[in-house]
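Folds abound. A case:
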Amino acid sequence: MLQTFTPDCLPLLIGSFPMNDHLAASRLIMNYTPAIPLWIQLPVFPEEGMVPQFLPGMPGVVSQGGKIFIDTAAKSFDDDLLLFFEDYMATHEDPDRLAASRFALTETTGKGVAALLDTLGRMETQPMAVKGQVTGPVTFCTGVKDQDGRAIFYNETLREAAVKHLTLNARWQIRTLSGPGCPVIIFIDEPALAGFGSSELISISKEEILGCLREVIDAIHADGGLAGIHVCANTDWSLVLESGADIVNFDAYAYFDRFVLYGSQIREFLEAGRFLAWGIVPTLNPEEIERETVDSLYAAMMERFRQIESLGIAPATLRAQSFITPSCGVGSLSLDLATRVLALTRDLSVKIRDSYDRI
């Protein structure tokens, strides 16, 4: 059964953070977003990059000359591929196998999840939701290459394997994080969608992308999770809004003028009871992070809210169906700037919620 709740402009974070201690990072995060904690990715560890973190378990993975790729020319590849799909079918039919399967994050790649579980075990107040994330199928399949340097998205069998690998990882996360009994949110991180329609993804169709996204979203829903899609730049927002995702997370700081052009799709999305996650706190430019204040971001949010309300959305509905987030992860920032982003996100959420309470 699909779980749901009312975000009501609560703060929500994106996964990456610039520290080298998972437990310390998890506990720091809890100071800013205790209502919706998440597991943290620490990019200082190479195995926690967007592609490497989810690559273990895929068939034919080879590390050679400092590069990791899928070797479809290896003698063992066909057998590896067959075994992969056999494992997928067995685990798909019996999800209780997930914890010990190739689809779970490993002890090495899953340190953020372990730290979050430790943090959750120490909480005195149950959170409203818990968040995880998985690299999106388009980003993953265009980021993973074969032995010839060709993205596996263009190999239909490997693309199918990758999407199925990601679906079961998402289901493993939901089952692993469901201990508190609150909704589990899984964000599908898709920075590659910023290239949709450009020369970079010119040969990939909207239908192919939607097919991949919907398979992951359906898997998240199968275990009662809420599916979000995070794109940290501009894209064809009709594709994201029509994907079936419960939450769309967009860069409201830099790209709201592009996003709001999809007015009819935004209205239909909200009327269906889905949620917008407003990435209004800047993360890309250090000067912007230092310059912006809670008051300046609040003014920007109110103006953006008014533009969405002009589409025919009631103010109370928009507030109830919104999260406040950074525009992207903060893993590439200094610790001071990253912490400032967290503080701005939390304090802006408080100001918005307080202002609505006074109306």
The longest strand covers residues 275-281. Residues 335-357 form the longest helix (23 residues).
